[in-house]
Amino acid sequence: MIKRFIRRVLGLDAPGPLRVPQSRHGISSNSISSGALKVCDVLADHGHAVYVVGGAVRDLLLNIEPKDFDIATDARPEQIKPLFRRALLIGRRFRLVHVMLGRETLEVSTFRAADNQSTEKDQHGRVLRDNVFGTLEEDARRRDFTVNALYFDCRSGEVIDYHGGLADLKKRTLRIIGDPEARFREDPVRMLRAVRLGAKLGLSIDASTRAPIKRLAPLLEHVPPARLFEEMLKLLLSGHANACLRQLRHEGLHKGLLPLLDVILEQPLGERFVTLALAQTDERVLADRPVSPAFLFAALLWHEVLAAWKMRDKRGEPRIPALEAAMDDVLEAQSVKLAITRRLTATMREVWAMQPRFEERSGQRAQRLLELPRFRMAYDFLALRAASGEVPAELETWWRAFQSADPEAREEMLLPDTRPHNKRRRRRRKGNANDAPPQP
Ligand code: ATP
Ligand code: MG
User: In the annotation, is 153 catalytic?
Assistant: First the structure.
């Protein structure tokens, strides 16, 4: 008895992981990418433990085609790199190796230890750096959800499960590993991941995992805006953006990301516009058609731009410079929370700035707009505005017809120039850089 007690205290009797043979879990080696199989082979040949891990194993068990294959091994980054012709050491927060094989890039990471005393954290408990290497068991413990901590052994075909991930998948439950509050404090982005993975995989978030989320939502404010942007992008391009955003609002998680979303969604026009934009994006993602993140963010923030524009207009500012200034206001306020990359904001500005130009359907103006490189995106944006009731449907129909008409028909479609004070306006605009047409 005493012997058993001592063994248990020392952890020697701790139940080992579940090892499920290939015949029972059903992942066929054929469904593992050739690159992942190759990396596993090379590392195993050099005597290392190596597994496919994370999203790929989870997705295969759910019959979803994985986006990519992540590999976990006991080999250190500096041991991994020389084994492959094209391999890069990357990451500061997590050091890992990118192995390029043909068109595939495999992320190969060394087993890491979970949180311990030496882990560097901020005052809210957020982990700043964790590069302490560990065992397979420790690596499993530091992963976020049980369904993400499943390891596929390419040689034996077994799935190794330390935290009941297989059972949770069967129950269609997303459960965090360990104490939910502590794990969300270590990395608040896990709360966003819970929402995204829940929606993408059709799993419901386990009650005790979900319980602290509303209370801890403000912790997202301390996450670097660039990381939030990355996660938000994944969420919006997941094919379930509409469901995710609804769930984010339900959990109070959107406040640190898109603070004015509530205000936008409260007005019927704003809600209709955002819902339509997200539905369209989801449809495209699920049909494997390309989507533009710039278009999406432009849509999410449009009604904020409109509000700021209206306010400046009321103050008597000239219309076009007022729009430019409104765009600045919104993008600046947003960048504190969510660092939308400069490449994206440049496109968003072009799309927004082109909107008032759709109202000009006379002479060369319409023709010139048509020739701008962002015309198609800006027109799609106009179509959303029309569908949501913000601008007359007739405006969108006209531009649709105008685009596809031949040059003569186009000439006939042009409306007479009825704008008042044309000459005076042109003179006043001269030399106003803000008012220049969008650059390609
Ligand atoms: P998908 O690729 O479908 O978005 P994923 O689960 O593969 O989902 P990745 O960001 O590719 O997400 O992460 C790979 C794995 O790394 C996860 O499955 C999980 O085991 C682990 N992981 C990722 N982010 C975290 C995190 N914030 N905390 C703990 N573990 C994480
Ligand atoms: Mg992944």
Answer: no
* Residue (of 344, 233, 237) closest to 288 by Cα position: 237
3-state SS string for 117-173: CCCEECCCCCEEECCCECCHHHHHHHCCEHHHCEEECCCCCCEEECCCHHHHHHHCE
Catalytic residue among 144, 168, 187, 206: 144
Q: Which ligand does the CA of 192 lie closest to?
A: 1
Out of 68, 153, 329, 380, the active site residue is 68
Q: What is the pLDDT of residues 55-113, one digit of tens each?
A: 999 999 999 999 899 999 999 999 999 999 999 999 876 789 999 999 999 999 999 98
Residue of the nearest CA to atom 18 in ligand 1?
A: 54
The full set of domain ranges for the chain reads: 1-171
Q: How many whole angstroms from 67 Cα to the centroid of ligand 2? A: 6
Q: Where are the beta strands (DSSP E) in 213-358?
A: none
CA distance 161 to 149: 7
- pTM, rounded to two decimals: 0.83
Ligand 1 center–CA 54 separation, angstroms: 6
Q: What class, spelled out in words, does domain 1-171 have in CATH?
A: alpha beta
Strand partners, 411: none
Beta carbons within 8 Å of 367's beta carbon, 6+ residues apart = 410
Q: How far apart are CA 344 and CA 292, in angstroms?
A: 9
